[in-house]
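Quick one:
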Amino acid sequence: MAEPRGSGGARPPEGEERLSALLTNANAIRAVASAVEGTLGPKGLNCMLIDTLGDVTITNDGSTILDKIEVSHPAARLLIHAAKAQEREVGDGTTTTTLLANALIQAAVHHVSRGVPVTRILEGMRAGITRALEVITTLARRPESLDDTLLRQAAYVAGREHADIADLVVQAARLIGRETLLDPHYRLAERVVAQEGAESAVIQGVVIRKERMNRQMPAHLTDARVLVIDDALEPEALSEEALATEAGFNRFLQVQEEFRQGLRTTLQAGVRCVVVERAIDPVAEELLTEAGALAVRRVAGSDLSSIAEHCGARPVKRTALKRSPQELAAVLGFAAEVRADERRGCLFVVGGTGKPVATILVGASTREVRDERERIARDAAAALQAVVVGGAVPGGGSVEIAAARAVQALREELRGMAAYGADCVAEALKRPLMQIVTNAGFNPLEKVEDVTAAQAARGCPSLGIDCDSGEVREMGEAGVVDPFPVKQQALRTAFEVAEAILRIDTIIKKRPEPETAGE
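Output:
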């Protein structure tokens, strides 16, 4: 049962309790949105994040802000999880999703407090979102080829107008080809590496921020056979109880010898570069060093997969060491060059015989600048790939205004109180443009009305606001475009969050779960 509320243990009327739960959740959603709304648009500002150790992160990236801020309210966590799911799905749009969800909820709260039933609001919202998606879909344009200017424009906008990064992303896309970009398992954003002191370039190969295990290993290899292990390179572990017995100790010696023999067999197969996902045993390090092989440990799974694909290797477990040299040869890859850059702390693997791979190497001056430039480049890469997959729409909040006009027209078709739900969608769709012009220093109400009137008068749904002059301008002509999949997913996710929040009728604190026996 929910705890009684109010003075003297009196329970408030049912309607007031439901509204109280909605207001509590809506306030938590508003607080999250306020943390990222100032970053939207070309004039958006940065946010400074400080952790418990005093380390500072300065960023304009909404996804990073949401990932690092500390929240305790369940509704706030729900919104953040949904926004992060948006990032995983299409690589961008977390700030837009957050703003749209907040606007939908705040508008709904206004109507619910006036007595409109939540179910009717959701009915109208669903119809409004459907109509908005129909309008935005008709405005999407797919690029004709990887030379289409849409790709560079999308990368430039998502990359916060860093022309050098946009050019690198486009170059990398052309290098790997359209077929690779259309692969649902491939993420161009994962092939971005930023490093202090490096010259920005597109490398036809894999670059990872890792160093060789020790300086006695070679820093440069040519025509190298590569072994990829998605496991630890160490012998089988035995329990302390087993080691306490003579049989267990003898088993330990046997395991150690089998491990050494497996490494010798591996080297006999011609392996000169070993890339390992987890730890490498000191015995393995010593044997590899003596054999003149280069080893890298604790490599991220995405980097490991990229090296394997580029070299044509098949990732294996540590048990592969027990295979014969002939069997091992079947899983090895090949690289024309493996080079460890000690000054920059990077490993280059190029000239593989597998799939073509491009790494976007972004130079930076300091660690803080490096991290932010990497985030910018990842956003630009994700936007470009999303345009290749699903096309682009006019940006700057213009398509949302066009959709809002269509939703307002839909209102006349809806029956009864469902029309208030459509109103919520229309108001929410105005929010991106309002925030963009607010961050640019203009009056949001004035500019939204200017764009709405201009679109209606000229019959042009791609009109928006030039954030430098404040004048109405055609966004395609200005080179302001957004990936269609990002817009589409942002609307869907925002509605899902709003629906989940609005359907919460009561907030009840759960009792502690009983401890299980033995704990």
